User: Fold this.
Amino acid sequence: MASAPLNVSVVSADHQVWSGEATMVVARTVEGEIGILAGHEPMLAILASGEVRVTLADGSKVTAAADDGFLSVENNTVTIVARKAELV
Assistant:
């Protein structure tokens, strides 16, 4: 695992819900739940409705409800684009 933080963006169809640096992202895809850490292989996955959990460097968590969309990982950048998303 690389020591660089993840740059994370959670975006809904009409606005940015959250963005910042994180140590881990957990999201629900149509193939099951996935955890993303720094150094993760590039990937593109289809989101299922559910929670996106982002763990920050201090251990706190940001949670968003996301419905339908996709998750992209490349070069320690995680982008989550959902039809509908909001912080919970």
User: Anything to note?
Assistant: The first strand starts at residue 6 and ends at 12.
